[in-house]
Amino acid sequence: MQIFYLFFFLTTILCSQTDNWWVFFNDKDCDARIQLSDRSIDRRLQQKIPFDIHDLSICQNYIDSLEIDGVTIRQYSRWFNAVSISIHSESLLESILAYSFVKKVQPVNKIRTKHKTFLSFDNKFSKHEERSGSFFSYGSSFNQINMLGGVDLHNEGFLGENMVIAVFDAGFNQAQTLPIFENLWDNNQIQDTYDFVDNDDDVFSGSSHGTMVLSTMGGYMVDSLIGTAPEATYMLFRTEDSGSETLIEEDNWAAAAEYADSVGVDIINSSLGYTILYDDTLNSHSYSDMDGNSTLITNAADFAASRGMLVVNSAGNSGNSEWYYIGAPADGDSVLAVGAVNAVGDIASFSSRGPSYDGRVKPNVCAQGVYAVVADLDSTIRVANGTSFSAPIIAGLAACLWQAAPELNNMDILNSIEQSAHLFYNPNDSLGYGIPDFHQAYLANLNINVEFSDNISIYPNPFQTGFFVRSNNDQELYIDIFNVMGVRVFSTYIGAEEEVFLDQLSKMSSGFYFLQINNSANFHSIIKLDE
């Protein structure tokens, strides 16, 4: 049996001892520096995000002081001002705590796996009717893109060019040789790789999970599989050890996120997550920890978002299990958590449910994760199940949307995706805000004047507090405005060759409204944005 799904929801028992620890420092009272690439700095400046102490490097003399016999430094975190270490004996902790610059030490819990959840796959394909005029011949991948408005967005010419996506996963076996990635390699679109587990550059052995995840975004096989962002640039980072029995993968994730920040990544796609249940309740990850603030990995994800990156994470595959809920870091308040639906938009039974423990809408949105079309290692394609695949489908289209609206910041993109979803006004714990429409999100961010006809103009559209309506000839106009439920919210009158400012929607929810002129059969969409 081939195992393709590595979104880990591990039900585990805490062992009594651990040899992995975080050491947190008191300050950065040294010659600390900001070591960010030009692209990273440009991203921050464009989004008007100030530099702060979290961007400064850790004091090197603190690190040097920990390099003693019996201590191995595993990872570094300037965001947390800490290092992750392995020790040969817990007696060394007394010496470490004696340093004046050490604030505290915290265990990285060692765990013993009771079971891991995997999903089966099926080689059947859903039948889709691909409309003529598409930019690509999508083949079987048409539906998973089209249901999100992605085909229309591609037809606008937005394919992810100049956007950088970091993929955090358990390995990218054969991604350097499969024909489906030939375009990426030929066009130098895979710009960086690093294995944060083994601390080397080889990510192309071991698990093929990341290979399939990457194919949903960057794959290019005409008439079979086109990824959602075929022209984006990718960085491939292994953070998960599929055979691991420790939670150091959370440390690896945090280290990868900091590195992604430093090299100028725009979007992080992570199809990994953790929901750890311990017999030791003092150290247990429980549903109450899914509050956006309690786990290290979620804090790292929110840090990444605070630096201007869009973090897209699988919601999880626990909908059929005892755990049931989303995991970390999908619980982050700045993380776009993605659930899974089938080809017609019904929630997948395995898709992890919300809300977050503190009551926020989770998952944020959903995409196809049942019979999602992915690359196979025999140079063909197959279908697979899991939020591991719905998340990167969303991440790729997010890159295309951001390419189309580069003036927006990461949270603007996240909000635009949510607001375009079909349940935005009535979210639930299964689908969140629903299935987004990226083409509508694109249109909503076009700040253009719309000439509805020779008789009327409206601007700006989209608007925030109000908009101008102008009659362009000697005809009087009667205008009705309806919400998405078809309810008339107000009516007004425009005199011949008159221009008026309408602010009646200023107190209403953001989203789509529809304008009708003189009781005609035609309705024209107008879009209200958050103020």
Description:
There is one protein chain. The protein is an alpha/beta fold. Helix content is 21%, strand content 24%. It is built from 12 helices and 25 strands. The strands form 7 sheets. It has a 7-stranded parallel β-sheet with strand order 8-11-7-12-13-14-15, with helices on both faces. Strands 3-4-2-5 form a 4-stranded antiparallel β-sheet. Strands 18-19-20-23 form a 4-stranded antiparallel β-sheet, with no helix packed on it. The longest helix has 18 residues, at 387-404. 49% of the residues are buried.
- Principal-axis shape: globular
Strand content: 15-25%
Characterize the largest beta sheet: strand count, sense, and whether it forms a barrel. Answer: 7 strands, parallel
As a percent range, the share of helical residues equals 10-25%
Structural class category: alpha/beta
- Count of discrete domains: 3
**Would you state the CATH class of the largest domain?**
Alpha Beta
Mean pLDDT: 85
How many beta-strand elements?
25
For the termini, the CA-CA separation is: 52 Å
Give the strand line-up of the largest sheet.
8-11-7-12-13-14-15
How would you name the CATH homologous superfamily of the largest domain? Answer: Peptidase S8/S53 domain
Q: Which CATH architecture of the largest domain would you pick?
A: 3-Layer(aba) Sandwich
Number of helices: 12
Radius of gyration: 25 Å
Low-confidence spans: 1-17, 110-129, 278-282, 448-452
CATH fold-type name of the largest domain: Rossmann fold
